[in-house]
Specification:
elongated, Calcium-transporting ATPase, cytoplasmic transduction domain A, 7-stranded mixed sheet, alpha+beta, Rossmann fold, about 50% helix, 30 strands, 6-stranded antiparallel sheet
């Protein structure tokens, strides 16, 4: 099972690495992933071999706190939110209040000398000179104490974990600042000794070598870095915060005929709820009364409002733009679409990409190595005769500048921003593993029905091959198909309903997976399906029937053959229209170097017709559901990185078998559950956008890791004084603290650049337009006329369609215009020679966007 825990006490990647190692040793734990950014841990374990209590105990034995996330999610959220920011701000304020006079007393005289200014009398009288050495040093000590006390957690956590042999970043800070403070206290004693025995050389030596200001500055600058880091980290989770805010707190329900305003969480399945203009749907439902347009951009990323009428699905967090809607609740609470999206984004943010293992391995040994390097550095300079001051200074600088925190943040901040960016655009990525795998894909396998095509096929031809009339044939066919859930079957049933054909009772109904169906109607056994079924049942198809099947298939239609006993009685052709963006999506995938394959149960002729329309590289036709998984597995065995895109129950095994399974959002729950990525907009263009997002995030992670490693590769030798003999370069501990703090902030800020990533850049639209922007002289019809389809964004009501239609009809050479709000397009009949650019400009001039022309 999978369990999520809230972890407290972590401050760097060494912490998260140690927690992971500790929990991984627990018997029964299969996989553990600790996220420094969200202070959370996901554990996959066998609950028969271990328990939550044992996992929590392992975390506590490692020196950290743990709780079940469900019970601690509020605390965890606060710890990464405003509460921790306020706490750090308070500590920072106190530190600065005492640091400023500390710096003034310890270094003020240097400033006066530098600018040739007169020093105030109280400085000269009380703090300057050997005679005031004790007052001078002890005052600094008193000013340092509040800074140490207010930042005591660095010492508490640092030394606790040091004694548990799992040192972290707090350990480095505690040792560095503590060493500086202890050396300062030692200096006070030496000054006291010198004054008591009149050894003024000792007094002078130690008066000039106090390190209280370094200790105070280190702690203050580290706190500055923590504050900036916390603020920056808060920005990385903005996508999740925005999603949470989208769900309304209350909703209007209709109970016993009376409207009541209740908490959204109190809605139960079956309740009738009301969504008024401007309101947001609190739960998922089915419209039972009214008609309106809903803005679903929060869920799908699609800005154009969608028309909703009786029988349509209503998605939670969608906004009613116009009418008055009554809907029946079907998914409530944590089952709503928006709740599931939030859950997916949170889980993806808490997961790790495989690339993070490099940082984890480094972090596991980083802090102990740094402590050893610091000790060796101090000892080396001391033995080489550099003096106590220089030796301690370099050792402290090594401790302070080393920053495993940047390593720990390099991956999670980029994943959180990236998955949040995807969610805002209707692309839900379930894990860091899937996010990384997507950028490695070289082969994309597409299901046909509902993926490449609309998934809403319609009956186009009813051909009788016997004495049975077309109407009676439809009656028999519809009766058989009403028991099937296949989209082609629904098309036939819908046709019967539209023609008011009464269906008959069917017995012994049986679905023959991937082949068709059989059943008894009016005491006769009927078969309906493809040629493979007919061959299996030893039913001979006549030459005339084969010619009809070939002709229909070449036209891109799917012929369904119907037989009674051993005789063919007719053929019903069903066509599923290719989505307007499918061709462009395939073209875009090819630009990324992808090999695009279509797997379909249709015959080869029909499949090749789809191939010709979309530009797909390869078609594998006549594939049964079980064979889809085998094909995907075979491609992987051949060394390909495969993405499978599908929407149906029969796609689930193939989705699970692929390196990355991508489910079209309008598909079945089973397909969505089996997938690694869910496309809420059901648009194949989002497959390319997913790959674009993946490449951008992984590139960002690599940049973060590079700078985190490069920073330490340069910073540690610089702090250790490696460059001092040749160039006299020596890093003061205070500057080391500032550099360390800024390194983590820089990593977070670099990840935040992903927010500016354009997943739908202009080239998506321009490619569609430029492809057809030349003067139209192809596919001429009768009288040199041609029909052009213009894809339009921005239309939301009947007034919009009227404006578009008027603008297009005004173009010279346009003979007919049909504008569809549902399809978001305009079908324009034009005379030969009319440029597509002219039509585009006509639409743009009245305030709408043209996203493609065919």
């Amino acid at each position: 099972m999978k369990e999520k825990f809230a972890i407290t006490g972590m401050s760097c990647s060494a912490c998260s690495a140690h927690v992971e190692k500790s929990v991984a040793k627990v018997m029964g734990v299969n996989k553990v992933s600790v996220n420094l950014l969200t202070n959370s841990m996901q554990v996959y374990y066998d609950d028969k071999q271990t328990s939550r209590a044992e996992i929590i105990a392992a975390v506590k034995n490692a020196g950290y706190g743990a709780a079940i996330y469900g019970a601690a999610d509020k605390t965890a959220a606060e710890s990464t939110g405003e509460k921790i920011i306020k706490s750090i701000r308070k500590r920072l304020l106190v530190s600065i209040i005492f640091l400023l006079p500390l710096l003034y007393i310890s270094m003020g005289h240097m400033i006066y000398e530098m600018f040739s200014l007169n020093m105030p009398d109280f400085m000269s009288v009380y703090f300057m000179g050997d005679k005031n050495a004790l007052v001078y040093s002890f005052t600094q000590f008193l000013l340092t104490i509040p800074i140490i006390l207010v930042n005591y957690q660095y010492f508490e956590n640092g030394f606790k974990l040091l004694f548990k042999r799992s040192p972290n970043m707090d350990t480095l800070i505690a040792i560095g600042a503590g060493a500086a403070a202890i050396y300062g206290i030692f200096s006070i004693y030496r000054i006291g000794y010198g004054l008591g025995y009149n050894e003024m050389s000792i007094v002078r030596q130690y008066r000039l070598n106090l390190y209280f200001e370094s200790a105070g500055m280190i702690l203050t600058l580290i706190t500055v870095g923590k504050y900036l880091e916390a603020k920056s980290k808060g920005k990385t989770s903005e996508a999740i915060k925005k999603l949470v805010k989208l769900t309304p707190k209350t909703a209007t329900v209709l109970r016993n005929g009376v409207e009541q305003i209740i908490k959204a969480e109190d809605i139960i399945v079956g309740d009738v709820f009301i969504v008024k203009p401007g309101e947001t749907a609190a739960v998922d439902g089915i419209v039972i009364e009214g008609e309106s347009f809903f803005d679903e951009s929060t869920v799908t990323g699609e800005s154009v409002p969608v028309r909703k009428t009786i029988g349509d699905k209503l998605v939670s967090a969608s906004i009613n733009k116009a009418g008055f809607i009554h809907a029946r609740a079907v998914k409530v609470g944590t089952d709503t679409t928006i709740a599931q999206i939030i859950k997916l984004v949170e889980e993806a943010s808490a997961s790790k990409a495989p690339i993070a293992r490099l940082a984890d391995r480094a972090a596991g040994v980083f802090v102990p190595v740094v402590i050893i390097v610091a000790v060796i550095t101090g000892a080396f300079w001391l033995l080489s005769g550099a003096g106590m001051e220089f030796s301690i200074s370099t050792a402290i600088a090594v401790l302070v500048i080393s920053c495993p925190c940047a390593l720990g943040l390099a991956t999670p901040v980029a994943i959180m921003v990236g998955t949040g960016k995807g969610a805002q655009n209707g692309i839900l990525i379930k894990s860091g593993e899937a996010l990384q795998a997507a950028q490695e894909i070289d082969t994309v396998v597409l299901d046909k029905t509902g993926t490449i095509t609309q998934g809403k096929p319609q009956v186009t031809d009813v051909i009788s091959l016997s004495d049975v009339s077309a109407i009676n044939l439809l009656k028999i066919v519809g009766s058989l198909e009403k028991g099937s859930e296949h989209p082609l079957a629904r098309a036939i049933v819908n046709k019967c309903a539209a023609d008011n054909i009464e269906l008959m009772k069917v017995s012994s109904f049986k679905a023959l997976f991937g082949k068709g169906i059989e059943g008894i109607v009016d005491n006769k056994m009927y078969y309906a399906g493809n040629q493979q079924l007919m061959q299996e049942k030893k039913i001979i198809i006549s030459l005339k029937g084969r010619k009809i099947i070939k002709k229909l298939s070449e036209a891109g239609k799917t012929p369904l053959i119907f037989a009674v006993d051993k005789k063919i009685i007719g053929i019903v052709a069903v066509a599923d229209v290719v989505k307007t963006t499918s061709g462009q999506a395939v073209k875009q995938l090819k630009k990324y170097g992808m090999h695009v394959i279509m797997l379909t149960g249709d015959n080869e002729i029909t499949a090749n017709a789809i191939k010709a329309q979309t530009g797909i590289d390869e078609v594998i036709a006549g594939v049964l559901p079980a064979q889809k998984e085998a094909k995907v597995t075979a491609l992987r065995h051949d060394g390909h990185k495969v993405a499978m895109v599908g929407d149906g129950i029969n796609d689930a095994p193939a989705l699970a078998a692929a390196d990355v399974g991508i489910a079209i959002g309008a598909g079945t729950d089973v397909a969505i559950e089996s997938a690694d990525v869910v496309l809420m907009r059901s648009d194949l263009l989002d497959v390319g956008r997913t790959i674009r997002l993946s490449k951008a995030v992984i590139k960002n992670i690599k940049e973060n890791l590079f700078w985190a490693f490069f920073y330490n590769i340069i910073g540690i030798p610089l702090a250790a004084g490696v460059f001092y003999p040749a160039w006299g370069i020596h890093l003061n501990p205070m500057f080391a603290a500032a550099a360390m703090s800024l390194s983590s902030v820089c990593v977070v800020m670099n990840a935040l650049r992903l927010k500016r990533l354009q997943l739908r850049p202009f080239e998506d639209k321009e490619d569609l337009i430029l492809e057809h922007s030349k003067t139209i002289d192809e596919e001429k019809g009768d009288n040199n006329m041609k029909k052009i389809v213009i894809m339009i964004e921005g239309m939301s009501c009947g007034h919009c369609t009227a404006r578009v239609e008027t603008a297009l009809r005004a173009v010279n050479g346009v003979t007919d215009v049909k504008v569809s709000l549902e399809e978001k397009n305009a079908v324009v009949s034009v005379k030969d020679g009319i440029a597509a650019e002219v039509l585009k400009n006509a639409v743009v001039d009245v305030g709408y966007d043209v996203v493609g022309i065919k």
